[in-house]
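Q: What would this chain look like folded?
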Amino acid sequence: MTNKKKISRFDQKPIGVLSRTDLKTVKGKIIYWIFFAILFIVSAMAVIPAIWTIFTGFKDTQEIYNSMSFFPKNMSWGKIVGRISESWGQLQLGKAIINTVLLSLGSLVVRIVVCGFGGYVLSKMKPKGSKLIFTLVVWTMMMPAQIRMVPNYMSYLHFPFASDHGVGVNLLDTFWPIWLGAGSDTFAVLLFKNAFDGLSTSYVEAAKIDGCTNYGIFFKIMMPLSMPIVIYQSIEVLSGAWSDFFNPLLILDKNSVVPLEIFRMKSDPTVRMNTYFMALVFASIPPFLIFAIFQKHIMGGINVGGVKG
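A: My prediction, written as structure tokens:
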């Protein structure tokens, strides 16, 4: 009976690297459980540090240094609420969270509009020189980001002339450099172009006959029909804004964001260790919510990003 139950369980599994016929053999079952054990160990290595961080935030400072216990000694409801309220009041992350939300939403709008327009022009409008432009766009993907770092910084310092003679506008300590950087994502342009290439040109021709402008065609026809790409880019931009550390460190000062505030707390002697771990917990909540809400679209976006037109 037990063997029949095990075989029926394997029969219900979807076909992957091992087929259902392979799973019925002893060799196939051994390979299956080896893979299962490896994945379990890797998952535990990824999850346990996160759980340890959460529990450490609810410990007392002396307990962190003097005890090797994984769990806090006191996990009562009053202790949990007290630690959360005390840490939130001391950390004062409200302004940083608002700045991060503004940064992420602005980056999202610029990414969708600028990269979407770029893909639309290369796919449907195809002006003179579009092949050369497409070649340059693809070529920028081969350029290491370190090469662009210094020229970009000089451009932000004296935008848009990158001059040392004081000509231009200083964009440092504003969100504009990061917003503009979100609109220069080559991979996003290629994704939109591939999506628009898959749409029939008859949609564009019929809209132009009805008197619709290129802007109307883009927003009313192209973007709704390319919603999987829009959702994928939205998730990427929103989640990336909560984990981007280098660009805010290079550009922002007073307009601090959450990753930058967490980094600066390490050198603040007034912030205790348990409060610092609680700050890590607070900073992890928005990306966790984004993943929990859009989990289905995130997994689908992996397939979208891997499809070639």
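Confidence is low (pLDDT under 50) at residues 301-309.
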